[in-house]
Structures are given as structure tokens and as C-alpha cells.
Amino acid sequence: QVQLVESGGGLVLPGGSLRLSCAASGFTVSNYAMSWYRQAPGKERELIALISSRSTTNHADSVKGRFTISRDNAKNTVYLQMNSLQPEDTAVYYCKVSMGYWGRGTQVTVSS
Question: Which listed residue, 42, 61, 65, 67, has the most CB atoms within 10 A of its CB?
């Protein structure tokens, strides 16, 4: 059974950092494209980072240079390192596998 569990969210000051984790089970993350989305209150869910099965990465312009997606095949986990966080990064962050399964999300709040 495919399962994705996000963790690592929380409350952080502007300029701070967080690392989100997406622990996968029921499949091997290295065989699929994995992505991170976020959804802020009153806004649509947006794609912010993707890592292909070949480890090619892409990041949305809004997070480029601040966020980095990566993968640990031994742990079957995908990460999102988020630096220089700003209030506009406040959202629920979701992990998704290319076959269409989503995690339940983790809340990130950036506020002083």
C-alpha cells in the first residue's frame, strides 16, 4: 500500500530554515518522480519542487535559490530544505509521487 508521510513543519521566524521530510512506503522513491506542493490559505495548490527518477531537479521561481529538493534512496525519503523563509511561504506543504498519491501535508508558518 502506497503511503506518504510528511514531517518537519512548524513555526519559524522570517529568515529561518526548516527541512521537510516525506517518508514513503509501498514503493521505491528512486523509481518515480517525486514532488513538493504547497497550498496557502485561499490559494490554489502550487508545484514548488520536483526530482525525477534520474535525480534531475526543478524548482519554481518563487523558491529557486532558497529551497532544495533531494532524495535519500536508502531511507526511501524525499526532503525539502527551506532556507530564508518568508511570511509568504506560509502554507501546508504536500508530497506527491508521480503515480498520483499524496501525503496529508505538514503546516509551515513563517511569522515573527
Answer: 67
